Amino acid sequence: MDDGEGHVGTLCEIGRSGSTHSPEKTVVVNWDSGHRTNYRVGYQKQYDLIVVDNAQIGVKHPNIICDGCSKPGIAGIRFHCADCSNYDLCATCYGNDIHDLEHSFVRYQTANSVGVRVPPRQGALKIQLKGIFVGARVVRGPDWEWNNQDGGPNKTGRVMEIRGWDNESCRSVANVSWASGSTNVYRLGHKGNVDLRYVQPAVGGYYYKDHMPVLDFPESVPEWPKL
Q1: CATH number, domain 55-128
Q2: What is d(CA 165, CA 58) in angstroms, rounded to the nearest whole number?
Q3: Domain boundaries, the chain
Q4: pLDDT tens, 140-183?
């Protein structure tokens, strides 16, 4: 249903006790391909998912600059070098192999979370992200509510930019240029909504599978992270 290793989706619903379609300790994920289904996040002590990005829910590390890309206020998961006195990376730079691969890092899922030490990246399993990134060809998706702004059903567009929704979140909306010539911004995880699905995915950065947090319930699921 997820189209394979490395393909990403958005958590769009958290299971509740008594629910007939999404019981407690499960979540519903909308994959960038448009498929939507349930996964376990502690149900029967099983965990199906990992988090690759939580910037969509507004996670930021104020006053901490990424030493890779120099962007202030790291958005999403932060990695702090355990072998250097003051060195931090955003998840994108961490996955793109900035800094010494033989150094260990401490992962911080939020600004207030307890750090988790991860082993060096040297020799670890590294996977490329695939889905709705810049360059992907898309059509209207499951939460579409914008009439024929795209030119009509099954009309395609191309993703020109991934950015945040004002100051609320980062990497939660996509700027799409449609074949009709119109351009607009659409939700891509903002408050759990996904307006698009891809017909041709694009590649994003990379992630180290064993270095990312397992999606648990409820501590690591404040709202709608990228999976």
Answers
A1: 3.30.60.90
A2: 10
A3: 55-128, 130-205
A4: 999 999 999 999 999 999 999 999 887 667 888 999 999 999 99
User: In the CATH scheme, what is the code of domain 130-205?
Assistant: 2.30.30.40
Q: What is the pTM of this model?
A: 0.90
Single-letter amino acid code for the residue at 186 = Y
Could you tell me the two tokens for 209? 């599978």
